[in-house]
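User: Is it possible to get a 3D structure for a protein together with its bound compound? The compound here is acetyl coenzyme *A. I've pasted both below.
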Amino acid sequence: MPPFGSGLLVLTAPLGALPRRAAAALAAAAGLVAGPLYVHLQPGLRLAAAPPPSPAAPPPAGPALLRALAALYAAAARRGMDLRVLLGPGRRLARPPRVLLLPANEAPGPPGPVQLGLQSLAAAAYGCPPNLPALLLGDPAGDLDGDPEEDPECDPDAALPTFSSVAVGGTFDRLHGAHRLLLSTCCLLARDRLLAGVADGDLLRHKVLMELIEPYELRVAKLREFLEDVKPSLRYDIVRLLDPYGPTITDHDLQCLVVSQETRRGGEAINKQRLEKGLPALALHEIMLMQDPDHSENEEDKISSSSLRHRLLGTLLRPPRQDPALPSRPYVIGLTGGTGSGKTSIARLLGRLGAFLIDADKLGHAVYVPGGPAYKQVVATFGAEILHEDGTINRKVLGAKVFGNQERLKSLTDIVWPEIARMVKEQIREAEAQGKAVCVLDAAVLLEAGWQDMVHEVWTAVIPEDEAVRRVVARDGLSEEAARGRLRSQMSNRQRVEQAQVVLCTLWEPDITRKQVEKAWELLQQRLGHDRNP
Ligand SMILES: CC(=O)SCCNC(=O)CCNC(=O)[C@H](O)C(C)(C)COP(=O)(O)OP(=O)(O)OC[C@H]1O[C@@H](n2cnc3c(N)ncnc32)[C@H](O)[C@@H]1OP(=O)(O)O
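Assistant: Yes, that's possible. Here is the predicted structure of the complex:
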């Protein structure tokens, strides 16, 4: 774990040289700073000069600065760093730096004039305490310090246009490098105010793995903190977007909308509406999409929140519940998921990896076979019309009676759940007797039944509703309406995700599901301190 919670990196190289050097500078800083890394750009600054250096206005907002920002944010994104390149000094930073860093080569020894210059710059520009540790990030090639070389492609005089009031919209989930570059561009374009619309509600409905999108309040808090750190002189109006237009079609003061290749058409639609309402059209400023050099086969090639959500699948999202009443062995995973979510195929894969499988659906059927512990009570409650001629319960008829009718479903589950739970506990004892370290309890309605106290972790399979309906119609021969009714009698994906330690998704090819499950299993073994074979 890097020793400092936050840091301030001062870069004095010419802007044109930064794209080639960003990765090395951030690699050196990443080993020292765990949390936010602020960057102060002051090309040509000589920190050892007398009198002590003073902070200068940020570099001019032109293509050279944009390229430097793009390189820095791309390099930070590769390392998952929380980078904030400061575009104007101002009030204290949200996470005050605990260390000051400068890429420079100097012989080790007591702090010299460079470190003292660094401390006085940080104090003057950002109110840092004067005695913060100031470290030089040595580089054997001596390649990180000021180098007069400029990027020949950059016209140093070309300036970005500026506008009093600028707007931008997005979901801003897990504020990644591309968001940070987009927002920094907005900050450079805006002189007084930035209106940021944050998508929520129905706008998220069709997003990939929408259940893993951070809550609106968290997205807004991170966005505001980033913006206020980066350019504190602007006014930020952050609003909830429930449709693609938001206030951009009514706000008289707006002058510019920042778009990407993908959202330009949305910007044009906004302008059409503005003109119809007698408002002036907005200047559309298009930014480049930032490429993700590390994207895998099934991910987009641009840096995207959906790829980041993808990478969360199979990982531990929140710490397991600690319940001293639960025996530590075998370790029980409660695997749940709505109908059609593919949890049974996940259970099978876990079985192949060595888990002991308990299928609650099957135990559910077993409790009301004739002579079973729940048979008489189920027949007494639902009548003889649920019986086949041979006296066994016709599950199709029983299912039609209970699915879509909460009261009847509750009557059934009040009878069968305690019996199924008893059988599950027997099976866990059996797993222990066989010396199995991990049990997977495959239970469709584990959370609805309140069975969390029987398991160490909850893993949930999620699938978009339309896909679940398609699968259930094809598999169980139900009508679309009946399939939707069955789904809606269960918890939503989001409710399950909120209570789950691990989330898995079977939306893509079987091979992708297999890799997710292997990753989840591998990480579980690490948590349990096991080798691969339980
Ligand atoms: C706590 C647990 O998870 S126990 C396991 C779930 N079983 C129960 O809750 C017992 C009550 N349910 C039943 O007895 C049966 O499901 C019946 C009779 C209603 C229907 O039987 P069948 O038509 O054979 O359907 P089956 O049992 O395969 O269940 C079909 C789907 O209904 C869902 N389902 C089962 N029970 C419930 C329930 N109580 N509430 C909501 N949905 C349920 C399951 O998700 C299953 O889908 P999946 O196989 O994709 O996961």
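The chain has 16 helices and 15 strands. Confidence is low (pLDDT under 50) at residues 140-148.
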